[in-house]
Amino acid sequence: MSAKSSRRRFLKSVSAFGSGVLIGPGVLAAPNFLRARDTQNKLNIAVIGTGGRGGSNLQGVSSENIAIVCDVNANALGRSAMAHPNAEQYKDFRRVFDKANRFDAVVVSTCEHTHAFATLAALKLNKHVYCEKPLTHNIQEARIIREAAAQTRVATQMGIQIHAENNYRRVVELIQTGAIGKVSEAHVWVGRAWGLQSADDAKANNDIVHVTERPKEAAAIPPELDWDLWLGPAPYRPFHPVYFPGPKWYRWWDFGNGTMSDLGSHWNDLPFWALKLQAPTSVEAIGSPAYPKAHPEIAPATMQATYEFPARGEMPAVKMVWYQGALKPPQWSDGTIPKWDSGVLFVGDKGMLLSDYGKHVLLPEKIFEGFKRPDPFIPNSIGHYQEWLQACRTGAPTTCNFEYSGWLTESNHLGNVAFRAGKKLLWDAKAIRATNCPEADRFIRREYRKGWGLA
After folding, report:
1. Are 25 and 403 in contact (CB under 8 A)?
2. What are the tens digits of pLDDT across the range 344-353?
3. In angstroms, rounded to a whole number, what is the distance separating the alpha carbons of residues 66 and 11?
4. Whole-angstrom Cα distance, residue 414 to residue 410?
5. Architecture of domain 166-208+253-379+408-440
6. How many CB atoms lie within 10 A of CB 313?
7. pTM for this structure?
8. Dihedral sign, CA of 239, 94, 104, 144?
9. For the residues 362-383, what does the mean pLDDT come to?
């Protein structure tokens, strides 16, 4: 595909968005319910989850009117209330949606296990939604959210900020204009190794906590925390500091999905975008020599997942391999490529392209001497948060909408499902099931604690 044809296609889609036409499922068009407002007027935003990543997301949209702040942690809630003294304050996000007339848009930055609950409630009220990554806690929830978003005309965005940086855009242009020819493989690796590991490995990896079993004893609940609300739909667990505060919770299957759902959202984003991936046909995964099998409570520190994606349109079938922790692709180990701590390697029939967040290189460099890059055809971003805010006002497209990020989230979760099932999965995306492994179903969806339901 030439750079000119790609540019024409992109501009055509932007033009369609501007005309207010709903192009297809999950593709944003101008919302017909937007209030008559000047585009310079501020949006009224409810921010659910204001500590940690929530604090960064709150800052990212603070140019608007922060109408509501909500957090189960009184300390985080207090800090956000001090910064936005006119905002209403809540600790239970379900009460926020009782005040639907007070806000136009919602930012969801709770822990992973409650993302779908706050996000679906916003979509049902036709509110614009920004959700921190990953979009949901499991595959079934990702499907529910993606399909619910497709029934609305609201602006949606998942929090993968690197998607807005220029480096990723230039890589996508190179891949889609055939700079390295037909791509048959993509390798994605990250150096982070948080999860189930030995005490020595945890120390070597600068891990913030070393645990091998779920604690059974209860610790004193911090006075600022509503532990029952923090648990939400997850199974009841006695409070313990291995879960809270900080990102410690995300290594526990009850609340998160480890490194894959966290960093996979950022790093697998690049091959998903460049190669127009959607649903794989098969996935298999392995762990480390020390922990080759899945732990019932804790996500792995080291893991490798191999996906087979079918051809889509003009894009060929491709194998994508994810590596986390100690595992690396063969090209890294044998010195074929520079030993970057984390990266994405595209392997084509005319060469390779290696990228990280901020830089990329065509390899072998010698054969690309004098290479003329394609003219840019993906416009530079106005900013990750600004894309979403502009879309809320005008119906302009967002690049990480729930149609795109829903498929990305499903795929990331599927790598963990394959590891936990201990078997190569033959994946039927339409039916949301592994046709050869019914025992994987319990990792694809979950039962909710009494009093919680997603419908």
Report:
1. yes
2. 999 999 999 9
3. 33
4. 6
5. 2-Layer Sandwich (3.30)
6. 7
7. 0.90
8. positive
9. 96
Helix (H, G, I), strand (E, B) or coil at 187: strand
Residue tagged 């497709």 (tokens): 150
Whether the bond between 85 and the residue before it is cis, its omega within 30 degrees of 0, is no
pLDDT of residue 455: 76
| pLDDT given for residue 453 in this prediction | 94
- The whole-number pLDDT of residue 86 equals 97
Tokens 């304050």 appear where? 89
Phi, psi of 304 (to 5 degrees): -130, 135
Would the pLDDT of 10 be above 90?
no
Query: Mind listing the pLDDT tens digit for each residue in 317-341?
Result: 999 999 999 999 999 989 999 999 9
Distance CA(281)–CA(373), nearest Å, equals 33
E-assigned strand segments in 214-317? 282-287, 303-309
Which tokens is 359 given? 């830089």
Euclidean distance between CA atoms 121 and 332, whole angstroms: 44
For the chain, the domains span 166-208+253-379+408-440
**Per-residue pLDDT at 208:** 65
Report the share of the chain in percent with pLDDT over 70.
90
User: For residue 23, how many other CB atoms are within 10 A of its CB?
Assistant: 13
The tokens for 424 are 């190569």
The contacts of residue 303 (CB under 8 Å, 6+ apart) are: 258, 259, 260, 285, 286, 287, 288, 322, 323, 324, 325, 327, 415, 416, 419
Q: What is the DSSP secondary-structure string of 331-374?
A: HHHTTSS---SSEEEEEETTEEEEE-SS-EEEESGGGGTTPPPP
